[in-house]
Write a structure and sequence with these properties.
Layout (H helix, E strand, L loop, with lengths): L21 E3 L4 E3 L1 H18 L8 E5 L4 H13 L7 E8 L6 H15 L3 E5 H5 L3 H4 L7 H20 L3 E3 L4 H13 L3 H5 L13 E2 L7 H10 L16 H15 L3 H16 L9 E2 L6 E2 L5 H9 L2
Parallel strand pairs: 3-4, 3-6, 4-5, 6-7
Antiparallel strand pairs: 1-2, 8-9
Helix pairs in contact: 2-9, 7-10, 7-11
Bound molecules: iron/sulfur cluster and zinc ion.
Iron/sulfur cluster binds next to α6.
């Protein structure tokens, strides 16, 4: 028999023997459409349950950029919603003002919330800061992500507060989290490695939760495709300037050669956190002398940034 005639064996699902659509290299499992979707949703539910991310009475505001991660986050939380006691979901979109990029994702966000009949507000940078990110970044494109990060953090805090949210859910996935661990190690920033900027036990900001923190970028892409919700959206034009971009491709290569690398990085973080528990000095609670927002120094990052933006 010629090689071409050898029948190709279709991989079967390990749960039901149906045709598999996904092969998890870490666990060597094959999963069909139904079992893949159920596996992702159950893992997210378990992350939420075991870490008490959502509790009865919560109003969870989803930070919906309209990109892949936040789209998958909204879809999964909306599907899990009936299993929770008196929990409310709504969404907020921050429009940074990035020409040729944000228009498409905002359009996609609008369509998604309309499909789910979810309350949705949109807050542009221009309303909060008096200009677009594009305008602020003229001549300082290399700093794009740190400028954007500071402004967006503030915008999301304002949005969550305005909505009366008890939790702010972001679409950070396993890749994002592993990249952050790696970047903090590269920078030698141990406090940032063990202090999760999302959690704030002192009630200074609406607590942030990351229900997709153990779901990989690839799994999110497959999840969206299987729901017919995949959209080929443009990349942010500033992404090329980020250290994260280099770390991202390095980790993606490692993950493909050594499946489980990203999860191992997350495990390392958990172990370091346990070792450091109670040993690092508590961050003193201070208030920015310009705006009064809680911060670690005399002036918050936003007020410091604002001075340089107006120069
Ligand atoms: Fe902002 Fe950087 Fe993300 Fe673009 S890539 S949206 S500039 S953080
Ligand atoms: Zn301030």
């Amino acid at each position: 028999m010629a090689c071409d005639d050898v029948p190709v064996k279709t991989p079967r699902c390990d749960c039901c023997s149906g045709p598999a659509v996904f092969h998890d290299k870490k666990t060597a499992r094959h999963l069909c459409r139904e079992h893949f979707i159920a596996d992702i949703e159950e893992r997210v539910a378990e992350t939420i349950r075991s870490r008490h991310l959502i509790v009865p009475g919560d109003h969870v505001v989803i930070a919906l950029s309209g990109g892949k991660d936040s789209t998958a986050l909204l879809m999964i939380l909306a599907r899990l919603l009936p299993s929770w006691d008196s929990v409310r979901l709504s969404a907020v979109t921050i429009d940074e003002g990035i020409a040729g990029y944000r228009e498409d994702t905002i359009h996609s966000a609008d369509q998604l919330v309309a499909r789910y009949g979810m309350d949705h507000t949109s807050i542009p940078f221009t309303d909060l800061f008096g200009g677009t990110l594009d305008a602020f970044l003229k001549g300082r494109e290399a700093e794009a992500c740190s400028v954007c990060g500071i402004l967006r953090r503030k915008a999301l805090n304002v949005a969550a507060e305005r909505a009366g949210a008890t939790k702010l859910a972001t679409g950070h996935n396993l890749d994002d989290e592993a990249q952050s661990v790696f970047m903090n190690v590269l920078r030698g920033d141990l406090p940032r490695l063990v202090r999760d900027s999302g959690s704030d036990s002192k009630g200074r900001f609406t607590p942030r939760i990351k229900p997709l923190m153990f779901v990989s970028e690839k799994e999110i892409a497959v999840y969206l495709m299987l729901h017919g919700a995949w959209a080929d959206l443009p990349e942010c034009p500033y992404a090329v300037h980020a250290l994260r971009g280099e770390v991202r491709s390095m980790l993606a290569t490692l993950e493909s050669k050594h499946p489980g690398t990203m999860l191992h990085l997350m495990e390392s973080k958990t172990r370091i956190e346990a070792q450091c528990a109670g040993r690092l000095d508590e961050e003193p609670v201070r208030h920015c002398r310009e705006c009064g927002d809680p911060c670690s120094g005399e002036t918050c990052q936003l007020c410091t940034l604002k001075k340089t933006l107006s120069q």
